[in-house]
Design a protein that fits this description.
By secondary structure, this protein is of the alpha/beta class. It has helices at residues 6-26, 31-49, 56-66, 72-83, 93-101, 104-124, 130-151, 162-167, 178-187, 192-213, 235-248, 262-265, 273-284, 307-320, 333-341, 344-349, 361-375, 381-396, 405-423, 431-435, 439-442, and strands at residues 225-229, 257-260, 288-292, 326-331, 353-356, 378-379, 436-437. The strands form 2 sheets. It has a 5-stranded parallel β-sheet with strand order 2-3-4-1-5, sandwiched between helices. It is globular and about 85 Å long.
């Protein structure tokens, strides 16, 4: 996302102007100013809390719009509560206070700013969840109705679907800045060696770009990568981020990720393989082609297997489109070595390796806690301790079935199922009961 987008900057300027007017009207330490700050922050966090997934980009928007210093963890902790808070039905304290003081001009200023901030949000997040759309419209309509009851008029009109008008303001509205993408990479649990290696690669590209700007000689380098690691270690997640980062750095033109495996590349009969590979290449141009379990292309070298043909066609396409195609091959570490040895051209083109280590028990426990936060669940200390012990035992005894973050996902889903079974017969559940995962929900979970 380009967070320098004009609607965001306008919202921030209007916010400063409103604060200045409140300081002049009521004083710098007034109750009015504090209430205006608190209510606007609650309003914007409620919009973000309506998203299906909250990212660092949302946090950056909040911080830049309202001059806040929130972290992703804090917003993710606040968000589940905001999904249950009907802000569009709750009159802000500042409006009540302004009415009591007869300050209707200041009231109009608050309503106008709430609308501007909401519109700025949709200009930066044109694919915002439907719940966010409803909250925005409901909130501004409620403020307008409250003002009408006080003054007999409405100062701000509201389009029925303002975000659709704003969506056409620029094709860049949904993009993310390089800094935000790097922030998302660094926010991933664990993967320290991966972050270091990717960071070094990005620094190299940035310096090469600077040399190019100054007319200097560039160092030839292959940007194709080998991701080696066991299942569930975040290879696809990092590849998806890297596709956007490469695009921001000008390495590729579109920044999308096309993920395939052997079945998408290798045909069953003579003449089928080359067209399949070419079709995948066409789809991936301008982005990253991510080939999972790439070693499976060369495991069978019999007369009836066309995996080696797929490799040959792939290598030619990488040469033909070297200025706008990046390929990442991924799989188990030892098998990826076999893959690279199967064809001399592979070793020369794939000379950068990123190793994804298995998650440690504390990292798996942290991933579980993050899943809980994102889905609006809370756990007591007994649950957190049990989860850590469970994954400590699983990590210690790990074998080929060990699936890292996929194990955590399966464990989390089983815990939710157990909670649902425990609560299903209760017709009078509280919000706290719906949020809480109890020790009985996790105590007997077994993974295959």
């Amino acid at each position: 996302m380009d967070l320098k987008y004009e609607d965001l900057e306008k919202a921030n300027r209007e916010w400063h102007q409103l604060q200045d007017s409140f300081v002049q009207e009521f004083g710098e330490s007034s109750k009015m100013l504090k209430e205006a700050c608190d209510d606007l922050q609650s309003y914007m966090i409620c919009l973000v809390g309506g998203e299906d997934e909250i990212t660092g980009t949302h946090v950056e928007f909040l911080n830049r719009c309202l001059d806040m210093r929130l972290s992703l963890d804090i917003v993710q902790q606040l968000a589940p509560n905001t999904r249950l808070f009907e802000i569009e039905k709750t009159i802000p304290k500042i409006m009540v206070s302004l009415k009591a003081a007869g300050k209707f001009q200041a009231m109009m200023g608050y309503i106008r700013l709430a609308q501007i901030m909401g519109c700025a949000y949709f200009s930066c997040f044109p694919e915002a969840a439907e719940l966010v759309h409803k909250r925005f419209q409901g909130y501004v309509v409620m403020l307008n109705n409250y003002e009408k009851n006080c003054t007999g008029k409405i100062s701000c009109s509201i389009d029925a679907i303002p975000y659709k008008r704003l969506q056409a303001a620029g094709d860049h509205a949904g993009e993310e800045s390089l800094e935000m993408l790097m922030g998302q990479l660094n926010e991933l649990v664990g993967l320290q060696s991966v972050k270091t290696e990717v960071g070094s690669l990005i620094n190299f590209i940035r310096v090469q770009n600077k040399r190019k700007e100054n007319g200097m000689v560039l160092s030839p380098v292959s940007l194709h990568l080998v991701f080696s690691g066991n299942p569930g270690t975040g290879k696809t997640t990092v590849a998806r981020l890297l596709s956007k980062i490469y695009c921001k750095l000008g390495v590729i033109s579109k920044g999308h990720l096309v993920e395939v495996d052997r079945t998408a590349l290798v045909g069953a009969y003579v003449g089928q393989t080359a067209p399949k590979v070419q079709a995948v290449i066409e789809k991936a141009l301008g982005g990253i082609l991510f080939i999972d379990e790439a070693y499976s292309l060369v495991v069978n070298k019999g007369d009836n297997d066309y995996g080696l043909e797929a490799v040959e066609v792939l290598l030619k396409a990488m040469e033909d489109h070297r200025d706008d195609l990046v390929v990442i091959v991924a799989g188990y570490p030892d098998l990826m070595e076999q893959f690279l040895e199967s064809n001399p051209g592979l070793r020369s083109r794939f000379n950068r390796f990123v190793n994804f280590e298995d998650y440690k028990p504390d990292e798996m426990a942290e991933i579980f806690a993050s899943m809980c936060r994102k889905q609006g669940y809370t756990c007591n200390d007994a649950v957190h301790e049990h989860v850590y012990r469970f994954f400590l035992d699983r990590y210690t005894a790990r074998d080929k079935s060990f699936a890292n973050a996929r194990d955590v996902r399966n464990f989390f889903e089983l815990a939710l199922s157990n909670q649902a079974n425990r609560l299903a017969s209760d017709d009078d559940l509280t919000k706290e009961e719906l949020e809480m995962l109890d020790i009985t929900d996790v105590a007997d979970i077994q993974l295959g």
